[in-house]
Amino acid sequence: MKTAWDCSKCVPAILPLVVGLGALLAVPGSLKAQTPAKPAAKQPLDMYGSIKQNAESGDARAEAELGAMYQKGIGVQQDYAEALAWDSKSANQGNALAEKNLGDLYFDGLGVPMDYTQAFAWYQKAADQGDAAGEVAVGRFHLYGIGMAVDFGQARTFFLKAEAQGNGDADYYLGTAYEFGMSGQKNMAEAMTWYQKGAALGSAIAEDNLGKKYMSGIGVQRDDAQALAWFQKAAAQGNADAEFNLSAIYVMGRGVPKDYAQGLAWAQKAADQDDGNGEYAVGSYYLLGLGIPKDNAKALAWFQKSAQHSNADAEYVLGNLYLDGLGVPKDYAQALAWYQKSARQNNPSAQDGLGTLYQNGWGVPKDYAQAFAWFQKAAEQGNIRGEVNVGRCYQNGLGVPKDNARAMGWYQKAAAQGDPMAKQDLAALQQQMLGEQQSPSAKGTARPNSASAGAQTAPAQVKYLQSSPIFSQIVAFSTPTTFLGAYEKTQPIPDHLSEHFYIRESVLRGETVDRWSQMISVTGVEGGASIPSMSAIKATEMIASGYSKTCPDTYSGIALGSFDVDAYHAFAAVISCGTNPKLATPQSESSLIVGIVGERDLYTIQWGVRSSPSTGKLPLDKSEWEMRLQQLQPIKLCSIVSGEQPPYPSCIGSPSSQ
To answer: If one looks up domain 234-309 in CATH, what number appears?
Structure first.
């Protein structure tokens, strides 16, 4: 449960380097001009002086070489205007290298407005002279239909001309044509043949792509060692994408021991090449504190750099930062703007984020229909959060007619991807539907009234048993059906990255985790049971200490006593602030806290109630809070049975026995 001293949602729900191997497995062959990788060592200054002297004397080859140095920042400060000037002089003398480099400048809009017509014209001039890189570039225009109709036959002709000169990039692009069907039909075996040819010829993009294939097991047997080897080959040529992928490998520990320092070093190499993915990765290291101190300001700066490259993931994360006020003042309008940028690139996480803004009325008028539309866009791409949110919209009739069957279908989709919140919502819906069948009169149960501290009534009697696998055990307890799951997160514990903190929060229908009158939450601290002298009483005392520091003048508390949860010791207490001054709108806040020391982890179940603020301590009615504790019964802590699905009958029994 989030109080003023418990920032359980401070880190946005991202792990940019790991989630779905997103950028690692991105479709290869972006339309960005493929120029030779930036060499690790810069040209000696005397070499620059010699080339410049020759260029100034009108030598076309030297002019082209000098233009390339300025374009890539080799031996000189990178300067696209100078590159354009020298390449233009050389190209006007018919130099093929300069013609190809001018094509790159116009294609990527470097020092000139982006202009595909001009880019193609220069590429064609280079290709007409038999320049292999120019032939590859012209082939790409035909393959992707850039400013022209897609024509695989023409593309293949140019690629084969370049391949005959030993250009492995041409083989790589032929491979993409067969993999993704631009050749007329998909043929993965044929694609792999071309990828391997390209890598054998030393093409960095082909080497990087083979690394992706071995990492994902697409087209080949998954092999982390092979993936690592191919990424290293490509990175040795300065390929920024491979450097980024090596960063991801070290973060995930795929084929190598986990090593955040190595991961950051590779991400920094990619970022130093002005690579959007590399900049995004470096920002993630600072945001999450992976091997370095957390630094929201530095994270923000790197994400902004990445977003300048239109990196959709960076745009999404910037939306999160503004939504949560991390490194920047909280700003719903900025969050909306960044989510929209990312969503326009079809980023499903950003689409889900837009749905959340519309559902809660953050920065936009509350609009359940718009929220549902965005959730659905995300869900249709297989986004787990989108699938869960579509399910909740159908379950609660938010923006669409209420439809439990459809809700169950979407929960099942998300649960099939292993999402614990979806499994929980699915089990809860199943039990709710069973309860409605057995007790039709329960459908009209009124929501508890929490308008004032003196009028806090006992919750509705209709309830379901929610169960969550949390680290080493299943935690199960009853929850009134008036509560709906609203938030769930597992994140590393700072300074103990091998251990994690888990939280799941449920609020009354129509309320949110930021604006609630009642909230039921369950938390877990991985390895918490092994903390010296830890006990259920100490766990509740630690939470009580946070409350007392927040409201020393209005704090009060009572003990409800010890009891057993299966074979484990538990302790319950009630703690209260007459006024919690750190809330946006001051309110009173009282909570039932149940601490449980499990086999190896520490758990709490909390039931919080907010109401009108009080200048003094709230009177705590012990019998009222004992009723709430009774409502949570049965509370169970069980072993996890391998392969068992929700609602975990080994722990809670079959639904018919409830």
So the answer is: 1.25.40.10
